[in-house]
Write a structure and sequence with these properties.
alpha/beta; 9-stranded mixed β-sheet
Length: 312
């Protein structure tokens, strides 16, 4: 089994020749650098870096993210015996996955909704940045993922977080309208970041039918979740897929349907950041979609798409 020509056709519609070469290298590589962030609730930058230095582990700070680092020429196993790892003073999380929370512009005592929180990384990232000085409602609809989420939050000493199990498209049934300062909509998607051309099992799921299914699910969730956001506050949308149907098309829908949401221009000075596209196949999107960003896959990053909105 090989991934379909349709997949490559779609990529060529989105990226230029140089980016395609970068993507092909990534899709054929098993080498992905280990990235982590410091858990500010249990540790400090000085403590973490001191232990890494003592073990001669080389690292690089990611300047545009709080507390994010990449291990240089080391693997995850090299961290396992460290006190900072065993005691949850650091947390392994991809650089791309950390970017959406960065754009929430977190403030002390924010009331925050994480719509589809499991497996757990972004909820605990929010708590770490604010050192528990916030209120988080973390939702998921899967009991097993909920248990893992609770376990991870407990180990990281995350407080002031209410974990709930509910259908994300029906949160309006149990949560009040206009009640959240910040909403993180890191939504279910076709997760094309998992694709590795050396591992057939990593892309068996891929199909345009699956993409369409996830697009419809996202639309259903957003239609009933956006009213939960307070006026003048922030919603950040993200996925870990390349598919424009699950990204640009979703943003296009939001802009055309929710006139009270104003898209905010975001950018990062980073070699793997690109603008979103405004055309795909036979579709043309609202030109304001260009205010959003996509993250190119590489040794340091995965496919990610991010947009930021303010409710006016």
């Amino acid at each position: 089994m090989t991934i379909t020509n349709k997949f490559w056709e779609r990529l060529n519609e989105i990226y230029d020749e140089n980016d395609i070469k970068t993507i092909q290298t990534w899709l054929n590589s098993d080498k992905r650098k280990v990235s982590f962030r410091i858990n500010n609730i249990k540790s400090t930058t000085n403590e973490v870096l001191k232990e890494l230095d003592n073990k001669w582990l080389c690292y690089k700070k990611i300047d545009f993210l709080e507390d994010a680092y990449i291990l240089e020429n080391w693997i995850e196993k090299d961290l396992w015996n460290l006190d900072i790892f065993k005691n949850w003073k650091i947390y392994l999380q991809s650089i791309s996955s950390q970017i959406p929370v960065h754009f929430l512009d977190l403030k002390t005592w924010d009331n925050i909704l994480d719509i589809t929180a499991a497996p757990w990384s972004k909820t605990s990232q929010i708590a770490s940045i604010l050192k528990n000085s916030c209120s988080i409602t973390a939702n998921d609809n899967n009991a097993i993922r909920i248990d893992k989420l609770k376990f991870t939050l407990e180990r990281q000493w995350v407080k002031n977080t209410k974990v709930i199990k509910h259908d994300a498209s029906k949160l309006w049934q149990i949560l009040e309208k206009n009640s959240f300062d910040k909403i993180l909509a890191d939504l279910p998607c076709s997760a094309e970041w998992r694709i590795n051309l050396n591992k057939e099992k990593s892309y068996w799921f891929w199909s345009e039918k699956n993409i369409e299914k996830n697009k419809n699910l996202q639309l259903e969730i957003l239609k009933d979740t956006i009213p939960l956001l307070k006026s003048w506050w922030t919603l950040v949308y993200s996925t870990c897929t390349i598919a424009p149907e699950e990204n640009e098309e979703i943003i296009n829908f939001i802009l055309n349907t929710f006139k009270e949401l104003e898209i905010q221009k975001i950018w990062l000075e980073y070699k793997n950041i690109r603008k979103w596209i405004t055309h795909f196949m036979d579709k043309t999107y609202n030109k304001k979609v260009d205010n959003s960003i996509r993250c190119l896959p590489s040794e340091e990053t995965e496919w990610f798409f991010i947009a930021k909105f303010k409710k006016i």
